[in-house]
Specification:
It is a single chain. By secondary structure, the protein is of the alpha/beta class. It has two domains: about 200 residues, no CATH class; about 180 residues, Rossmann fold, CATH 3.40.50. It contains 17 helices and eleven strands. Strand 5, helix 5 and strand 6 form a beta-alpha-beta unit. Helix 8 crosses helix 11. Pathway: Protein modification; protein glycosylation.
Length: about 475
């Protein structure tokens, strides 16, 4: 009986083991089959660029692209988008942009690759020293430039900006407008996190000026320091930065990188007014200089974009320097507001009520396809790359249907940045000298360079620096 039970036990164990290995074998065979099917699908995709139907049936994920595509032959099956003046440091990666897949690289050996469809330029580093010429019919040029015109004035002339098919700049006329690049969202404008009650601000006025100025980029094209220097003759201004410095920040906040530090923001929030002056005057060029005081519950005194009223949260949320004929008139108005609590708070009613009434601003923030300091959204560089990738694929699809390609171009009024001008009362100060000796000549020179560049690029062949400068001087 005992032997019989042992035999049954051993038989049961053997059957269990056999069943286990059988299941395991079937699973391996199934996985191998799935793997072969996946290889077969990928192979079929590589045999020619993705077609619309195939993109619906097989979707990649970004994290899978790095491991799925590794060889040179893979690259030759997809559109190549080459960062000619690198903004990213990646030598090569595949990215999924909705249904479309593109290969992004900074490797210039891809210039003559048959699959290269677009060259991406970062505006600050855009240079005539080397350009991807000759420019073939299917080669698009794309510009990403979120910076001030003073970084590269050549881009702010019609001759240069219209060389580009796709643009991402601060202009509302850009294909991907970055006008609100310094604004996280409408909720931060409504937030009262840093806001200090008016009664406390009035008390703080015993040791603080009504106005605060914080700039370390002195004598820029806007000539802002000249204006503030004259303004200081008519009203008290606390200036913490290197420009017109008269008041010290705590040691740990003196680095410009600390300007988003909570303690620095608390210092600014104590003031009634912030001088928010841009370093250059262009339509829609709006930086943190405007948004920061609005977020803090301080009234900005703004000088910069002529179209600023299109972007303010309400029609009474900032004081515009352009409304006053002289700094003394502005000083008089601020002194009046400083003494009149009711009138001063009328500039903060929108914030106190949490009411942003500007439909353009609300619409722009709602329709924006990228985020600021928001890990749940793509950043504007990724969005720019995908915009170009999607447009490249659109033309691939048009070609498959026998249609003519879509040609995008930057608008002539894309970057409206007039020649820098000095304030008429500033002829005896360093800012005026800076404009006369550097910024105005730089602007005029860049205009000549822009037209020379246009002429040489239209010849559609490589040119030397000597040829370029000879043409510039000829102008």
């Amino acid at each position: 009986m005992i032997r019989m039970r042992r035999k049954i036990l051993w038989a049961s164990c053997f059957c269990f083991a056999a069943a286990f290995f059988l299941v395991l074998t079937l699973q391996v065979i199934t996985e191998l089959g799935n793997s072969e099917n996946k290889v077969s699908v990928i192979s079929s995709l590589h045999s020619s660029p993705l077609k619309p139907g195939e993109r619906h049936s097989f979707q990649f994920k970004k994290q899978e692209l790095h491991s799925s595509f590794k060889t040179e032959s893979d690259v030759n099956r997809y559109p190549v988008l080459l960062w000619w003046s690198p903004l990213t440091g990646e030598t090569g990666r595949f990215s999924q942009c909705g249904e479309d897949v593109c290969f992004f690289t900074i490797n210039k050996t891809y210039q003559h690759n048959q699959m290269t469809r677009a060259f991406l330029f970062y505006g600050t580093d855009f240079s005539i020293d080397s350009l991807p010429l000759p420019r073939k019919e299917y080669h698009d040029w794309a510009l990403f430039h979120e910076e001030s015109p003073k970084n590269n004035y050549k881009l702010f002339h019609e001759a240069t900006i219209t060389l580009f098919n796709h643009t991402a700049t601060f202009s509302r006329h850009s294909h991907l407008p970055l006008t609100t690049q310094y604004l996280e969202g409408v909720e931060v404008l409504k937030s009262s996190r840093f806001m200090i009650p008016l009664q406390m601000k009035n008390s703080l006025r015993k040791r603080l000026a009504p106005l605060v100025y914080v700039q370390s980029d002195c004598n820029p094209p806007s000539d802002r320091d000249s204006y503030v220097r004259e303004l200081m003759c008519h009203i008290e201004v606390d200036s913490y930065g290197e420009c017109l410095h008269n008041k010290d920040l705590p040691q740990h906040l003196r680095n410009p990188a600390a300007m988003d530090d909570g303690n620095f923001l608390k210092i600014l929030a104590q003031y009634k007014f912030v001088l928010a002056f841009e370093n250059a005057i262009c339509e829609d060029y709006i930086t943190e200089k405007l948004w920061r005081p609005l977020k803090l519950g301080v009234v900005p005194v703004y000088f910069g974009s002529p179209s600023i009223v299109d972007w303010l949260p309400s029609n009474k949320s900032a004081i515009l320097v352009s409304s006053f004929s002289h700094p003394r008139d502005l000083a008089h108005y601020i002194k009046t507001l400083d003494r009149d609590d009711e009138e001063y708070e009328s500039y903060l009613q929108w914030k106190l009520k949490g009411d942003i009434s500007n439909p353009r601003l609300l619409r722009a923030m709602k329709e924006r396809k990228w985020g600021v300091q928001d890990i749940t959204q793509d950043n504007y560089i990724d969005t720019f790359e995908c915009m170009v990738c999607n447009r490249v694929w659109e033309n691939i699809r048009r070609k498959e249907k026998g249609w003519l390609p879509q040609r995008w171009e930057a608008q002539v009024n894309h970057l409206s940045c007039p020649k820098p001008e000095a304030f008429w009362f500033s002829s005896s100060n360093p800012g005026w000298i800076s404009l006369q000796k550097m910024w105005i000549p730089s602007f005029e020179q860049s205009k000549k360079e822009a037209w020379a560049l246009r002429h040489l690029v239209e010849r559609n062949k490589n040119f030397t620096a000597e040829e370029f400068w000879m043409l510039v001087f000829k102008e």
